[in-house]
Specification:
Blueprint lengths: L6 H23 L2 H8 L3 H7 L3 H24 L4 H10 L8 H16 L1 H27 L9 H21 L6 H14 L2
Helix pairs in contact: 1-2, 1-4, 1-6, 2-3, 5-7, 5-9, 6-7, 7-8, 8-9
Length: 194
């Protein structure tokens, strides 16, 4: 009797092995052979599920975006006003558990420049996050926890640009931009919009 394989579960195992490999070897050291080895499968099996390294990295990034959405919902539970704005911005910085995923995301930005399909997929996630920031800033301004003297959409766009820049610096030069500096910079700018 042939063995029954849950293909969705196997894909998830391979994606999880991809993240473990990236954490262990970095993006440059992550190869399909290393991913297969980490997962405990033959290298040829990987090709059945993913045609190449780019495909499995794309699936891993998509899983990271999905996990980030779920985590963001949990992080925002019970928060409101300026506190919710701060939390949604902190969630996007390369700090804590999200640091590796954020590093891989930043490294994928080059592909987004040259691939229309990648840009469309990845920017949709960024737009979703930006729109969440806009809604939360509007709410914070409406309850008096952020300034109403400036358009909330403009404030949100400035905060998103700040976090994008801090993320780039945090990934590219973590010694100069450690977690505490990233958070302190964000807090100083948020204070300007009280």
């Amino acid at each position: 009797m042939p063995k029954v394989v849950d293909h969705d579960a196997r894909r998830e195992e391979l994606i999880a092995a991809t993240w473990r490999t990236i954490r262990r070897l970095g993006l440059a050291g992550t190869t399909t052979r290393e991913i297969a080895k980490e997962a405990g499968y033959a290298h040829g099996l990987l090709a059945y599920y993913f045609p190449d390294k780019d495909a499995i990295l794309d699936a891993a990034l998509e899983r990271a975006y999905q996990a980030a959405r779920e985590q963001l919902g949990a992080r925002l539970a019970g928060r409101s006003g300026r506190d919710a704005v701060r939390e949604v911005l902190l969630a996007a910085l390369p700090i804590g558990e999200a640091s590796v995923e954020t590093q891989v995301l930043v490294m994928s930005w080059g592909t987004m420049v040259t691939s229309e399909a990648q840009r469309a997929r990845r920017y949709a996630s960024h737009r979703e996050w930006r729109d969440t920031v806009r809604v939360l800033v509007r709410i914070a301004a409406a309850v008096g926890e952020m300034t109403a003297e400036q358009d909330p959409g403009e404030i949100a766009d400035a905060l998103v640009a700040l976090v994008d820049g801090l993320t780039l610096h945090g990934v590219m030069n973590p010694a100069e931009y450690p977690e505490r500096r990233l958070v302190a910079t964000l807090d100083r700018v948020l204070d300007r919009y009280r």
